[in-house]
Design goal:
CATH topology of the largest domain: tt1808, chain A
Structural class: alpha+beta
Helix content: 40-55%
Number of strands: 11
Strand content: 15-25%
CATH class of the largest domain: Alpha Beta
Length: 314
């Protein structure tokens, strides 16, 4: 007997011998979890699988979605887009967070809540919501002379992926806390950092190019505000999931957010090419409205933009 199985949910499918050469090494869609996987054939004794299991009876539905020239129409009909899959995962994340959110609310009601309590809660979130295995979550790991609260490591090569600085639930996530996370991230060379007190979650992209200590804020959300875990919160939190990071989605979103940071956006607006185009557009609009042709002074445009767009803290 020949079988293959989904690498995500381990659902098994029986493969007729006549199909082996056609589908081995091709991509298939799992009927149960909808994940895509590469078909690898395993030969097992006939008695190892019961004849009437769902795995056996549903084999043809799996095979029909394998990418062969004869099944392209079926594949197109059944395949979901990445954005559809992502939306479902975000919806599941929001649902899975309900029990943990209730527990966080209870921690918040306590008169004296400890950092350790919040750390345990964050570890449970990493396990049950964000999809990490116990072996990937390290707590109180020494980094130089201090200990990082939580480090999430890749199970394959043990490389650090996320460093998490945890504080008690009413502790402010100030500059000092963020700098501590930045220091750990620079030493460990992690691509991401989080600072959290359970309620507030700030997620950073770390060390783009030369500045290893620089953290670029990707999102800053609160879980105990009036709307609880909103759809926007769930979409942000999805970036922390193992699925998002391993697929490269978190990296792409991080760079997209980093590209439009306020200082970079202002620099782009003030670029000479943009100002030249803006002056021409203003002159053309004015001529169209009044019939008078003018030249717009570049210094005036620059000064007006500065007063309109540049906040006092930049």
């Amino acid at each position: 007997m020949y079988i293959t199985q989904c690498t995500e949910c381990k659902f098994q499918y029986r493969i007729p011998k006549s199909h082996i050469e056609i589908i081995t090494g091709r991509s298939a869609s799992c009927k149960k979890c909808r994940a895509r996987f590469i078909v690898n054939i395993i030969e097992i004794p006939d008695h190892a699988i019961e004849e009437e299991t769902e795995s056996v009876t549903e084999t043809k539905k799996c095979i029909s979605t394998v990418n062969t020239p004869n099944t392209s129409e079926t594949s197109t009909r059944t395949r979901r887009s990445r954005s559809d899959v992502r939306r479902e995962l975000i919806k599941k994340l929001k649902y899975d967070f309900r029990a943990l959110h209730s527990r966080l609310s209870e921690i918040n009601k306590e008169k004296y809540s400890s950092e350790e309590e919040v750390r345990r809660w964050v570890v449970d979130s990493l396990r049950h919501v964000f999809g990490y295995e116990d072996r990937e979550i390290k707590t109180e790991e020494r980094v130089n002379e201090r200990k990082a609260d939580i480090i999430v490591r890749n199970a394959t090569d043990n490389k650090p992926m996320i460093v998490i600085e945890v504080k008690s639930i009413r502790h402010p996530l100030n500059r000092r806390v963020i700098d501590q996370a930045a220091s750990y991230a620079a030493i460990l060379d992690t691509p991401y950092a989080i600072v959290t007190n359970g309620d507030a979650w700030i997620f950073f992209k770390c060390g783009i190019k030369s500045d290893k200590h620089k953290l670029i804020e990707i999102f800053n959300i609160a879980l105990l505000d009036e709307d609880g875990i909103s759809d926007d919160d769930a979409e942000s939190l999805y970036l922390i999931t193992k699925k998002s990071i391993e697929s490269g989605y978190t990296e792409r979103q991080s760079h997209s957010t980093a590209a439009i940071q306020p200082t970079r956006l202002l620099k782009a607006i003030m670029a000479e090419s943009v100002l030249t185009k803006l002056r021409r557009t203003l002159a053309d609009q004015y001529e169209e409205e009044t019939g008078i042709k003018i030249e717009v002074d570049p210094e005036s445009v620059h000064e007006h933009l500065k007063s309109l767009l540049i906040p006092d803290n930049l």
